[in-house]
Predict the 3D structure of the following.
Amino acid sequence: MESSIKSSKIDLDIYNLIEKMRKGDRRAVARLITKVENGGPEVSKQIIKEIYPETGKSFIIGITGSPGSGKSTLTNQIASEYLKKGLKISIIAVDPTSPFSGGALLGDRIRMKSNFTNKNLFIRSMANRGKLGGLAMATKEAIHIFDAYGSDIIIVETVGVGQSEIDIFKSAHTTLVIMPPGMGDEIQAIKAGITEITDIFVVNKMDRNEADKRVNELETMLDIAENIVVDQKNHNIRIIKSNKWRPPVIKTNAISGENVPELIELIESHREFSKTTGLKNKKLAYRYKHYVVDIIQYFQNKDIERLIFSNPKINEFIDQILSYKTGSDPYSISEMILELFSKRYFS
Amino acid sequence: MESSIKSSKIDLDIYNLIEKMRKGDRRAVARLITKVENGGPEVSKQIIKEIYPETGKSFIIGITGSPGSGKSTLTNQIASEYLKKGLKISIIAVDPTSPFSGGALLGDRIRMKSNFTNKNLFIRSMANRGKLGGLAMATKEAIHIFDAYGSDIIIVETVGVGQSEIDIFKSAHTTLVIMPPGMGDEIQAIKAGITEITDIFVVNKMDRNEADKRVNELETMLDIAENIVVDQKNHNIRIIKSNKWRPPVIKTNAISGENVPELIELIESHREFSKTTGLKNKKLAYRYKHYVVDIIQYFQNKDIERLIFSNPKINEFIDQILSYKTGSDPYSISEMILELFSKRYFS
């Protein structure tokens, strides 16, 4: 059985879009991302194979936070600061809760109208990709497209702190977690998984009374975290954090822009830290391990579906399951199917 | 590399729980389901292998509908009717939107207090199982446990009509879709995927004016659906539906109980229809094909993660990716990894 991961030629349509993107055509960029969103890894594969040597140059900033945190406004401010420096910025706004697909701008991007006509800025929203590889994978691929397009900075902004957001942030060089002041119970959620991926904590709406309280809470949490012994055998992001970057906590006001230049300085110092300590390469290696896992799992899963639903021999196994005899349970039969087909499976 | 799907001995703890369940111990049933929820397929495998020959006897009813439809009250009524006949009923209330794990009763189950102390009734809520195989798989396994426990009827109730609900309903013999009257736009959502899995449409809250309007809408939709040519090559549930069961549409009042006995009659006639036409076996075969796909994918995905994260050779491949050379993109490298490891992979 031919595995579906095997090479296929690039579609002429896709190749033409990439050629246009290379000449700076913004619409071609948008259409390539739509292809990644709708076409799944079979389509992404063609794009990534072609553009990959042109990637690896962008600096990727991840921004997350709860809906009330002012995250989008702050993203706007950060983008504006970088735009002032003459850099080319791309923003990917990821919304895993929305059932609608990307292509258009997010509603709340209307706020960004001041930046909207800037040709150094590209904003793209991404929502569900359904079963075709998932949103985290589509986001990774959109990042590669913006990277090949020549973005100096790619900002990936997402709501919430669920598993899919954590997956998305494995792609970032520097990750910011934005919090509103004075919601103590949120700290719990943050402890649960986001600390490992956070490089800078931002307490937004600093004009509010409880901002300092939140800063103190975070600092205390970080004090405790620093005393946790990291399991070096564990191949997860915590190993990376043992490199002794303590996430700074900064207060900002996204509306007035107060402390935004200071935040940019922190981002830049983390960027420098990552480069000089080798953290950047460790993160990259980690990221690509996950990407490879995603890719292999996707195509294997497809192959398994094909195997089960198109091979007439499978019906005998299913009949065996339906006999309800000892040893004919779905787990035992799955083992048998694997054993029988595994040898020829990838050939 | 040893594949993780391979047999492992049953834990004594699990075996003892199964023995207790065989003697009718309700707490053992609850604990087995908790094990399935928290332990993932590695644990479920042991349970299913042991109990499988004792399953296949329950009649499984799937009930879904939007939150305002009165679905839970109707589930209660249906359970009551069957309890009157002296049957043993189990209810699994699946809530994919809740971040909290099962074990306890759902809040709205307080309404069921009239049935609560009945020892022929078992109610269990199930929520997210996270990454360990997913909720749909855990639900399938809970169904097998209730089946082995000797339930005559298992009712699987879930909110919404998303992909995960559709996956869950692949396990039901007879699926009811409950709708409130007069919300015309819902029909759209229903068209999108739920029609294929619906055996009986229930318009609840029949005392309301718009109930008849909704019934008419549904009948019109079904008229149109009957004229759709089914692609026989397509291995999905639509093939099953071509067996010419037209879902009846019935009005009920879940609070007063009006038309509930008539609904039970419809359920029973669908049950009979399924048996005599062979639809039941076709559905079963389809269900177990999906279950086998779930199982194989789960263990394969685990094996792939292990392969990528624990094999030191992988680091060379990752270094190659980080060279950003042509042909060193993640897709090409994934192909190479698969090619190299596939032969030894399952041995």
User: Anything to note?
Assistant: Chain A has 14 helices and seven strands.
